[in-house]
Q: What sequence folds into this?
């Protein structure tokens, strides 16, 4: 298994765990009924196996957050995290280009 | 009991909206879990703690999900009944089923009235609390599914399916329980199984059973008598046809020998006397009044006398005749008696069978009455929940519809004031920072002043440029302004609000940014020209500055429109475009002076 896939799977596990914790917390706070939580579980089980990349995970979270507002914060957090990673990667690429220019000159 | 309907006609739209509100209230009331559900959540929490998310979801999705298990055999669920494993079993519309239904439903409703939906307990050897809850939910579901308007109003707006929480919300509602109790009392008073019908049915069944037993006995007796008849009839036939060596005649059967002797001139008188005596005996035995006792004694005397007369003359013939007459008479008398007995048995059997047909008709009739009554009762009990749910929801709809106009206006007004207030307060602080400044060159001490903070405005401008998602930006501002998530969700669904905010919020941001000394980057300029939200913002800004508007209209030669800035850019290039943009924003660049 390559590094990227391992990273993604770890990320997916973390998201799934956060989703479960959110459900339990909201049930405890009585913001979520048992029936609704069952529907959430069914929805997650029906989709989670098909998620193979970051973009799909983000779309999945957005869909969940649109249907159940309890996941909105999780979606926003994840979106920010993804953005951070994107910016870091861009800066890394930029630095590589600059380094390459310096070396070649 | 008639179903309560609203006092005044309710339009479909009003009903839908009102029931949605009622359903929402019901959903809100469904957060309390039953002990079993709590136990299941505990199991889910354990899996989560162990990092076993998959098992957690599976446990949550399937645990105690008896409803979905039964859904797979939905047809079977139509009739009530549970087998030993707790699963429902199919039952036809037999009498037993109806009685079972009555008992099951009555018990469940009684428990429900006493313990409430969440307090239902397992009945030892009977239904579990889940089964009881399901029975109740089934009734509410049946009602909702059979009513398209209410089904439409109650279904989940996203998934389009009915939510179990909806039924539970209704069943947990105290007002609903009270209405149901009232209705059930009416059902019990009017539809219970009448005692006299039960008594009559038991008596009819008992009579039917008795007749059945009697008929069996008579049938057996008839069989026995028939066997006897056959035996004696065989003896008679043997008398008539078996080989016989007559001592006084040339005949070869006893019957022939008897007939020959009975007309023999030597003993004919004696034979006739014997025959007459037999006829008299038989007649008397049958109870006829044809012959008297004297006739019999006279006949006996005649027999005695004639025998003495013929005995001396033809003793052998008399002796043989006596033997043959005795045997023949014995067989005939026995056969006659058996025939009479057989006829009597058959006659009795026919009578009993006739009675049994009547008894069966009566029993079946009573049984049908009882079945119909049981069905009526079952239907009435089942209908009780459905009708009460309907009554309950219509009542709620009426209440809501009646107060809806003023209620809606009031709620809307409060909401708008809250949104405007929070947003205005937040935006005022969002891009500014506090600074200490000396009054009159420091001679009069220091004062706090508020100035636009370029770093803060730049952050927001960058977010819009980087994401291109101005609606997402608006949503973030709304959230950070302190509005609640459900309020934000509602605002984000309001197209007019979003359109207004795109112009208002982005314009404020850009003017604040310029006022703070920030630059409008090429990326932002491009967005303002090309994107649909950018065009909206530009148009709003230009409309707010007469000088800029005139300049644009002069360059394009057309009235101001969303495409004007792009046209200016094409005709005069980026520099002119940028100047016009700054001009449009310049009107607001003095805002900093007003900040306190």
A:
């Amino acid at each position: 298994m390559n590094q990227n896939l391992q990273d993604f799977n770890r990320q997916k596990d973390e998201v799934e765990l956060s989703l479960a914790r959110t459900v339990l917390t909201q049930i405890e706070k009585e913001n979520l009924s048992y029936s609704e939580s069952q529907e959430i579980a069914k929805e997650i089980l029906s989709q989670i196996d098909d998620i193979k990349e970051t973009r799909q995970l983000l779309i999945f979270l957005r869909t969940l957050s649109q249907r159940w507002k309890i996941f909105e914060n999780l979606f926003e957090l994840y979106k920010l995290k993804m953005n951070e990673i994107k910016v870091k990667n861009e800066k890394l690429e930029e630095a590589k280009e600059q380094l390459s220019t310096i070396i070649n000159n | 009991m008639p179903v309560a309907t609203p006092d005044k006609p309710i339009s479909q739209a009003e009903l839908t909206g009102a029931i949605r509100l009622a359903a929402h209230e019901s959903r809100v009331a469904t957060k309390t879990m039953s002990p079993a559900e709590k136990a299941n959540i505990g199991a889910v929490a354990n899996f989560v703690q162990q990092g076993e998310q998959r098992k957690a979801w599976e446990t949550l999705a399937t645990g105690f999900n008896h409803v979905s298990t039964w859904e797979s055999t939905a047809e079977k669920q139509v009739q009530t009944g549970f087998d030993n494993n707790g699963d429902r079993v199919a039952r036809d519309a037999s009498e037993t089923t109806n009685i079972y239904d009555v008992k099951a439903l009555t018990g469940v409703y009684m428990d429900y009235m006493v313990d409430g939906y969440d307090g239902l307990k397992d009945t030892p050897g009977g239904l579990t609390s889940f089964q009881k809850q399901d029975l109740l939910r089934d009734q509410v579901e049946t009602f909702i599914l059979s009513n398209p308007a209410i089904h439409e109003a109650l279904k989940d707006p996203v998934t389009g399916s009915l939510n179990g929480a909806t039924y539970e919300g209704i069943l947990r509602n105290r007002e609903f329980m009270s209405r149901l109790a009232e209705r059930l009392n009416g059902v019990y008073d009017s539809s219970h199984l009448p005692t006299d019908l039960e008594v009559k049915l038991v008596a009819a069944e008992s009579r039917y059973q008795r007749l059945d037993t009697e008929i069996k006995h008579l049938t057996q007796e008839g069989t026995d008598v028939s066997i006897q008849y056959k035996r004696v009839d065989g003896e008679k036939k043997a008398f008539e046809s078996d080989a016989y060596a007559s001592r006084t005649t040339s005949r070869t059967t006893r019957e022939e020998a008897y007939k020959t002797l009975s007309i023999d001139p030597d003993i004919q008188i004696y034979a006739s006397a014997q025959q007459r005596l037999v006829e008299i005996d038989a007649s008397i035995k049958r109870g006829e009044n044809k012959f008297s006792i004297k006739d019999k004694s006279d006949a006996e005397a005649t027999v005695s006398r004639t025998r003495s007369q013929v005995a001396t003359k033809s003793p052998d013939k008399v002796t043989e005749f006596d033997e043959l007459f005795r045997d023949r008479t014995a067989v005939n008398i026995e056969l006659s008696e058996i025939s009479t007995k057989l006829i009597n048995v058959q006659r009795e059997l026919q009578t009993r069978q006739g009675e049994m047909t009547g008894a069966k008709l009566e029993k079946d009739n009573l049984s049908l009455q009882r079945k119909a009554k049981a069905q009526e009762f079952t239907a009435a009990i089942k209908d009780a929940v459905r009708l009460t749910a309907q009554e309950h929801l219509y009542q709620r709809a009426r209440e809501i519809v009646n107060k809806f106009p003023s209620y809606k206006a009031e709620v809307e007004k409060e909401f708008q004031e809250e949104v405007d207030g929070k947003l205005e307060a937040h935006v005022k602080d969002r891009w500014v920072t506090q600074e200490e400044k000396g009054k009159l060159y420091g001679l009069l001490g220091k004062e706090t002043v508020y100035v636009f903070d370029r770093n803060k405005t730049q952050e927001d401008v960058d977010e819009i440029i980087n994401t291109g998602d101005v609606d997402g930006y608006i949503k973030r501002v709304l959230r950070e302004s302190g509005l609640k998530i459900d309020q934000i969700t509602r605002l984000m669904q309001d197209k007019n609000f979003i359109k207004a905010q795109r112009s208002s919020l982005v314009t404020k941001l850009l003017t604040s940014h310029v006022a703070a000394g920030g630059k409008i980057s090429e990326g932002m300029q491009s967005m303002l020209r090309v994107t649909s939200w950018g065009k909206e913002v530009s148009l709003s800004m230009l409309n707010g500055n007469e000088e800029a508007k005139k300049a644009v209209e002069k360059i394009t030669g057309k009235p101001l429109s969303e495409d004007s800035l792009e046209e200016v850019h094409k005709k005069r290039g980026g520099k002119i475009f940028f100047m016009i943009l700054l001009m449009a924003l310049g009107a607001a660049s003095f805002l900093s002076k007003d900040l306190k």
